[in-house]
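Re: that chain you flagged

S.,

Sorry for the slow reply, it's been a week of failed gels. I finally had a moment to sit down with the sequence you sent. For the record, here it is as I used it:
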Amino acid sequence: MRRYHPLLTASATRVARQWGGGAPSEVDDIVQEIYLRMCADHARILTSFRDPRPEAMFGYLKVVSTNIAHDFFRKKNAARRGAERTTNVEQASHVPAPFQDMDRLLSLSEIDAMLEAHTEQKENGQRDRAVFRLYYRHGMTAQAIADLPGVGLNPKGVEGVLYRLTRALRQSFGYAQESDAE
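Prediction finished late last night. Pasting the structure tokens below so you have them in one place:
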């Protein structure tokens, strides 16, 4: 701490001034956040850094502390805009989409029933249903869904979930339509 604390405080102060702040209590909060993030996950940020030059650690810590300070202000500004009112992935799967006619509402409820039936026994069934609904009901892209906290998939993984579920639902509808015709 004696060696790197002035560096972390200077980075926090510089970023606070860029964001229009700089009060000592705010800088202290940012420095505290920097320490917390650096120590998180068994100090992964610190232990993963490999460079044989001793002066490289100063540059690395300066960049990391500056990024954490920027994240602090982004999070603070997001809270002002009402980001805490957004829902996480599990809650988003139950957010109703706007409907314009009764036929669409009925077909969506049929899709939801088949989706539930297909994913209820799966380990990640709730996540997969949320991905499906976010994509088809709310029009989010695979990249946007992958960027959501708690999804735990990259864009290709999201596309894979969507492909599997869409194929399974089409097969289910095909079987349902064949039995209705008989």
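What I noticed first: The helical segments are 5-18, 24-47, 56-80, 89-92, 102-119, 125-136, 142-146, 155-181.

Talk soon,
D.
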